[in-house]
Design brief:
Blueprint (H helix, E strand, L loop, with lengths): L4 E3 L9 E2 L3 E5 L11 E4 L2 H10 L7 E4 L2 H9 L3 E4 L7 H10 L5 E6 L6 H7 L5 E10 L13 E4 L2 H10 L7 E4 L2 H4 L7 E4 L5 H13 L1
Parallel strand pairs: 1-2, 1-9, 4-5, 4-7, 5-6, 7-8, 9-10, 10-11
Antiparallel strand pairs: 3-8
Length: 214
């Protein structure tokens, strides 16, 4: 088969049609680094945003959620002291409770998150700081930009799904590739889907290419 593969991530990738659904805007001009000894990032965009605001974040050891986040931290010269094997919601929180209950953690995050890590941790006696430093907004398209019937569409976050559905109607012939469990929960009911073997955009593209061969 030769289905078109659309990628909704802000970053383009070979062998896909780039149809970005989201854009990022900084919403802080400083990092609140006082009285903390460890930073936590759950996305590479949060790392890039921190770098744009204050490069001194690299003085702190970091908890990196996901391979792409870890890679971005190290690319910019930061130190990753822990990357959980499981990083979906409650599993992530349990790791922090187990390994970092004595640390003063600053969670550097976007305006909207798929799981309230701070609230979950507080229920278990751990109160971390958090700072919102960027927000995500939808890019608007005309209906003429909608993927054609039978297309494979890669979603890399819940936001990319929400923004896609703000722009276009979901067709029963579409096939969705999602980056992980948190994103999967936001697909339309009865949507055909496959989950990437690892929560990474490159693995999403690999999965889409595998489906396209069948």
């Amino acid at each position: 088969m030769n289905q078109k593969i659309y990628l909704t991530s802000p970053i383009p990738k070979p062998e896909t049609i780039h149809l970005p659904m989201i854009e990022f805007t900084l919403c802080s001009d400083r990092l609140d680094l006082e009285d903390v000894d460890t930073l936590m990032f759950t996305s590479k965009q949060a790392v890039s945003s921190a770098e744009a605001i204050d490069k001194s974040w690299k003085k702190f050891p970091t908890i990196a959620i996901g391979d792409a986040t870890k890679k971005r931290i190290e690319e910019l010269g930061g130190e990753v002291i822990y990357r959980p094997k499981e990083f979906y919601g409650s599993e992530l929180a349990k790791d922090i409770i187990k390994f970092f209950s004595d640390k003063k953690i600053l969670y550097i995050r976007p305006e909207t998150v798929s799981f309230d890590s701070k609230g979950f941790l507080k229920q278990h006696g751990i109160d971390i700081k958090e700072q919102i430093i960027y927000k995500t907004s939808c890019i608007e398209y005309s209906k003429e930009n909608a993927p054609e019937d039978g297309s494979i569409i890669i979603f890399t976050s819940p936001s990319t799904i929400h923004c896609f559905l703000n722009n276009f109607e979901w067709k029963s012939t579409y096939k969705a590739i999602v980056i992980g469990k948190a994103t999967l929960q936001h697909l339309p009911k009865n949507a055909y889907y496959a989950v990437a073997d690892s929560p990474n955009i490159d693995f999403c593209v690999k999965k889409a290419l595998e489906i396209n061969k069948n």
